Amino acid sequence: MPRIKKQGTPYRRKRQGKTDYRSRLKQVISGRTRLVVRLSSKNVYAQLIEFNPDGDRILTSVATNELKKKYGWKGAKRNASAAYLTGLLLGMKAKTKNIKEAILDIGMRSPIKGSNIYAVLKGAVDSGLKVPHSVEILPKEERIKGTHIKNSNFDQVKTAIMKGVTK
Question: Which CATH number does the domain housing residue 52 bear?
């Protein structure tokens, strides 16, 4: 007689620790655009995503690689300053596509006060994107400006992003 293989949890992404389906369901039911922030070991990624029954639709996206290539960012690609500029750039791109508001989606990350995820949020909010948040969670201004970083060209890149000027 053949052996029957037992099925585990039917949600593969839940088993892998990649998706919190309860949180995702709440976000999908809201019907609002999601500001998705993901951190890798070298980059910060931010996307504006809209739910679609056939699969989520990416409206616009930005990675810290774009800061180096198009705007001449000299600093590291995964610090608070780079995360803020990524959020600022995403917000400026959202303006051109008439996206005015979103909700934050941090995935399975722990919500840590002042983290790079919230630096992206601050950049998006400073560009004019309306995202519900608490002011206490945002990183301090000195951290975002990168006053502790040597050879930072934060102000030049910020003004270039605000004006829409590329290198």
Answer: 3.30.420.100
